[in-house]
Amino acid sequence: MSKTKPVTIVEVAAAAGVSIATVSNVLNRGGIRSSQETIRKVEQAAEQLGYRRNTVAAGLSRSKTFEIGLIIPSFGGYYGNLAEYLQLEAYNAGYHLSVFTSGWFNPLIERKNIEVLLQRRVDGLICHGLAMGQESTRSLVNNGTPLVMINGWGWPADIAVGAVNLGFAGACRDSVALLVERGCDSLIYVGSKRSSVINEQRLQGFYAGLAQLGRDIPYQVVDNWEVDIEVILRDSLAGASERVGLVAFDDVVALKVVSAANKLGIRIPEQLQITGINNDIMAEISYPAISSWSIPYPLQAGTAINKLLHAFGQQDVRTEEREFEVPLSFIERETTKFM
Amino acid sequence: MSKTKPVTIVEVAAAAGVSIATVSNVLNRGGIRSSQETIRKVEQAAEQLGYRRNTVAAGLSRSKTFEIGLIIPSFGGYYGNLAEYLQLEAYNAGYHLSVFTSGWFNPLIERKNIEVLLQRRVDGLICHGLAMGQESTRSLVNNGTPLVMINGWGWPADIAVGAVNLGFAGACRDSVALLVERGCDSLIYVGSKRSSVINEQRLQGFYAGLAQLGRDIPYQVVDNWEVDIEVILRDSLAGASERVGLVAFDDVVALKVVSAANKLGIRIPEQLQITGINNDIMAEISYPAISSWSIPYPLQAGTAINKLLHAFGQQDVRTEEREFEVPLSFIERETTKFM
DNA sequence: CTGTTAGCGCTTTCAA
DNA sequence: TTGAAAGCGCTAACAG
């Protein structure tokens, strides 16, 4: 715990009897060949003195930090999972990931944190959704730092080098088909306007599912934050509907629905069928367990990092499309397992 | 998106017709006074040229990065919440927080990430639990970077400047008392050995609660990962016990218990009462809603950051104790609301 | 109040 | 294969 000043290459060089350039070559650079003897001397000196590279100095010197910044709305649930996979993928590519939140889509915090990241001269930026508008973003990231959006639809190429988007629309569309197939004769979509852009995608998918049914079916669209789910459920089942199908914004909303149904004595899946999204832990341990759409994190994270590497000029590009859509996969559990 | 090289103080100085030192004084330093005229010229030039401070260079020059590193087991649930509050507290103190995970207590990943943080010359480190042993930690953090532990009991002063620990033991102890008071005539503790140190604290509290009961009561201790909760519940209620009290490791485990009870038709809270820990979102939306112990994040995060500031030599110290215990507060919900 | 100058620790030509 | 030296952008004495 003593305030020891860290040892530098200067000291290592002195101890090894070589120049600092040589130390730098041996320790921190690949490709540059040195004699076995020199390598041995340098490594031994470094080891013995407890040398630890100063990446701040290295970053300044090379004007390249090997750091990637990530902005997510919060660390919770799906966002946190994504961050974990991104961290791993970044590491495998030789980069480090600095994770910041936007305090649940707070444009001020978001802006401030992006600014911090830019001041740190991160090599690239990954932003999940974005509370700021596109103009705001453009003026902030005007310096050429590559930006990859996650769940950002329709961002122009001069702002973002690309986007990796989850196939929410497809998942909701298919949920509708599946619920109807399972015998539901009326449908409800329970959204969450708290995340507007993302909610929109899902709603769009819900409508698409309705449209491709080939026939009309009663449905309603409500918001998790505005209505009492118990009331909605009771009213729906009091009507002509024998079996209601419910598409929930995510698994948190789905669990709320399950709880309300349990409380009201509504039988799942006989009277009510539910699909969630995200495949959160609570979907698995709920009773009845919730059918949900799971996210292929490795693919999502890998694609995002790859787009960045591509922008850095390092190859290994898996995909060329600017907006890449990651498909979700259905995990069927008890809230729909009725045939 | 063009690869513009960022503007530096040199260019701002030229545009403003002053020296780089003056620019530095005006833009990046507090306390140093300049004439109004100079300030105006410099700020205008900076604004117009789009100057953004390079904190990498500043960090190198001052040998102080104003960065704090945080290691948590994962971004999920409680850990993610904590990270969010720490980020806020750090920011308020003029620092930035870089968050890394240890991949669920993986000593290798943990070590690697701490090493990365140290290479970045963070001013301080906050570690949540730690998979590595104390010796390992000592040799890694031997350079004088202050380390604050979260939920680390018994760390010597030469490794960690202090610790901020949650009062799990107290919460579990009080849970026992409360459950018995609510009429439970036998108890179960369902732990999670996946997080050994933390589990131990809780178990200790459970035993303490038992001890201060003043009389014997049947109990059992099981592990969430080793047993089938349904079996445990059925067996317990098949015995002489009229009402079982269950102390769950956290709200995830508590929700598993609630689900099992719902499935078996066990009535909550008449036959079974449950307490969780963490006050996770799922405790609130479960049915029945789960009584849980909530964590005072602002206090916990604030104390941790404060200990670091103290170690940095900046004052504003709220507490002197090396190991500070943060008390949890009980949120009573339906799983115990029976009198 | 402002400018000169010597670093911070490392990387990277370019010669030797 | 190795080393001398010029930066990278900013800060912090120290003079003026």
Describe this structure as you would to a colleague:
Chains A, B: GO terms for molecular function: DNA-binding transcription factor activity; transcription cis-regulatory region binding. The structure is a homodimer of 339-residue chains. In chain A, 44% of the residues lie in helices and 17% in strands. By secondary structure, chain A is of the alpha/beta class. Chain A folds into 3 domains: 9-60, lambda repressor-like DNA-binding domains (434 Repressor (Amino-terminal Domain), Orthogonal Bundle); 65-160, Response regulator (Rossmann fold); 168-295, Rossmann fold (3-Layer(aba) Sandwich). A 6-stranded parallel sheet of chain A has the order 2-1-3-4-5-11, sandwiched between helices. In chain A, strands 7-6-8-9-10-12 form a 6-stranded mixed sheet, with helices on both faces. In chain A, helix 8 packs across helix 9 (196-211) and helix 10 crosses helix 11. The longest helix of chain A has 16 residues, at 77-92. The first copy, chain A, is elongated. At the A-B interface, helix 4, helix 5, strand 2, helix 6 and helix 11 of A face helix 4, helix 5, strand 2, helix 6 and helix 11 of B. Chain A binds a DNA duplex (16 and 16 nucleotides) through helix 2 and helix 4.
Brief summary:
The first copy, chain A, has helices spanning 9-16, 20-28, 36-49, 55-62, 77-92, 107-119, 134-140, 168-181, 196-211, 229-238, 251-264, 281-285, 297-312; strands spanning 67-72, 96-101, 124-128, 147-150, 162-166, 186-191, 219-223, 244-248, 272-277, 291-294, 323-326, 329-331. With 339 residues, the first copy, chain A, is of the alpha/beta class.
